[in-house]
């Protein structure tokens, strides 16, 4: 309610107030600082002559100046684990399963695609005696410690479906009556 009231007073006679403000004489601007008038000083001939005059004393001093610069030899800092790639990375073909359309065709050695990761995790979960960490490392060109970490920390989900009889038994269960 307060907003409506203030809007009424703010918009009252707004056109007349605006036209009155527009028709007022413009105030004269404040005088400029004298440094702003340097462009008019450049038009004077004695200043132009001073700028264009050559000073032989300064030219001889300038000719005596000789600058020789040498860049220090470039040293590449070795950060330990980070190495600049010296050649193009080796690629390997992916082990495509039934999700062939979703996966990439080539992967760098030492890496796996998402579909391959899910496949090897599922194979290890279903048959851990056959799909050991050593076999997975050899099959997918991975390091053994990375495979061990992968198998330890990433576990695929289990999808459980309840039989229909169990669902009926759960929904048809009658609560006990308290006496």
Automatic annotation (TrEMBL):
Instruction: Kindly state a single biological-process term from the GO annotations of this entry.
Output: mitochondrial respiratory chain complex I assembly
> Where do the segments described as Disordered lie?
19-44
Q: Which Pfam families has this protein been placed in? A: UPF0240
Q: One GO CC annotation, please?
A: mitochondrion
Domain of life of the source: Eukaryota
Q: Where does the chain cross the membrane?
A: none
Question: What PANTHER family would the database entry show?
Answer: NADH DEHYDROGENASE [UBIQUINONE] 1 ALPHA SUBCOMPLEX ASSEMBLY FACTOR 4 (PTHR13338:SF4), UPF0240 PROTEIN (PTHR13338)
Assembly and binders: Binds calmodulin. Interacts with NDUFAF3.
Family according to the record:
Belongs to the NDUFAF4 family.
Question: What protein name is recorded for this chain?
Answer: NADH dehydrogenase [ubiquinone] 1 alpha subcomplex assembly factor 4
Give the source species. Answer: Elachura formosa (spotted wren-babbler)
